[in-house]
Write a structure and sequence with these properties.
The chain is mainly alpha-helical. The protein is built from 5 helices and no strands. Keywords: Repeat.
Length: 98
């Protein structure tokens, strides 16, 4: 994007991460997330929710929890989608009491 004079913002990266999540492409979603942070941008609730979704699709509950905890550490407030993703991940892992 930078090569063609387009300066990506958080919305741009959120769109990329969401698209990669829809394609079940964890590696590309992680690269986009890392690029967002390298650009000095701050992930928001939509960023974390999309990243959590792709980890859930990969059945990686540990990474879903890691994303959720990182989001809280960055003072990003969860929304309904975030909580539903977290509940879904814990349920699929048999960790419903957590």
């Amino acid at each position: 994007m930078n090569e063609i004079g387009v300066q990506p913002n958080v919305t741009t990266y959120n769109t990329l991460i969401h698209a990669f999540a829809s394609l079940d492409d964890l590696d590309s979603a992680e690269v986009a997330f890392d690029q967002l942070k390298a650009e000095g941008l701050h992930p928001n609730v939509w960023t974390y929710s999309s990243l959590m979704k792709v980890h859930l699709l990969k059945k990686d509950v540990h990474s879903v929890r890691r994303c959720f905890n990182e989001m809280l550490e960055e003072n990003v407030l969860p929304n309904t989608i975030t909580y539903n993703t977290m509940i879904d991940a814990l349920g699929k892992a048999g960790l419903v009491t957590e």
